[in-house]
Every structure is written in C-alpha cells, then in structure tokens.
Amino acid sequence: LFVGRFDPRGTPLWTRELAPFDISGAALDMALDGKNLVIAGTNDRRPLQQLTVVGLDAAGNHRFSRPLCSGTSVHTSALTIADDQTIYLAGSYGETVECDGRSLPFEAGSHSAQDAFVLALDAGGCLRWLEHLSSPANDRINAMSVRGDELLLTGESAATIDIGGRPERLSGGFLLSTKR
Questions:
Q1: Cβ neighbours for 99, distance < 8 A, ≥ 6 positions apart
Q2: For residue 112, what pLDDT band results from cuts at 50, 70 and 90?
C-alpha cells in the first residue's frame, strides 16, 4: 500500500509506502486538514490485528506513527481532524481489543458480531480519550464529522447501544451528537 500527493494536473509530488508503518490490510482510512495527513490502517496478521496511526506533513515527511489498538478483527471506519488538530478515529472490533493499554469490553452476542469504538488523539498521535459503543448485536460507526465543539457520528446498531455508560435505544441507523 502507498499514499501519494498529486498536483491539480495529476503530476506526482510525492509517494510513501505504508509497509514500513506495518499497514498492510484493506481496512484503511485517511483525513487531511490542509496541512497534515493522518492515515489509520491495520495489518493482516492473525490471530490479532494491529491498528496503526501515521501522521505525515504536507510534504509527506513523517510526523508520527504508532501502533494504537490490537485485537480480534480490528477495523477503522471513520477518521477526521478538527480545526484544533485533534484527530478522531472510529472503528470496530470483535471479541477482544486493547487500545493504548486499555481493554475494551466486548458485548456483541456472537463471534461474528462487532462492537464499535471512537477515540481522540492529540496532534502528535497521543491518546486523549477512548469510548466504546456496544450492544448484544452488531454495532458500527460509519462516518464522523466535527462541528464546533460537537463530534457527530452516524452508525448502525441492531439493539439498545451503550454509549459511554448511557444506554440508548438506537436500533437501526443513528446520528449521535456529543460534546468533544
């Protein structure tokens, strides 16, 4: 896998391979804030996958990279950068996951189901906070956006979902707005 920057005429400005950062899987997401590029992706190792976050500047120079989460079937599903350079990442996992030393509970009822998580990183890639969204069924965050001091999430669940210790009935699709 690689990432590249091109000018408006399609002329390559730079390219970088992602293999040195241990990103090799198909679960890949990226966000650009005008100055910096953040890439999140997983590797294809079994039985545990690793989710890695990489930051590059506008010239493609390495700013940071770090393994962030490891677990069973870890995937990224949404990534955005706020005006204050806070990086928000959402994803899903099956059975077990540990992010930055913190284990997240798995409440999905079967081994094929997924729970969701959302986290915030500072501009250097350090974890600020981490929350899980879980129910006895499949849970997923599909997209995120930052608006002022709110983080907007869209997703889907098949049951009442636990959002940071507050059970909410969000069966089907949902739009959640929370203070960041």
A1: 51, 68, 69, 117, 119, 127, 130
A2: low
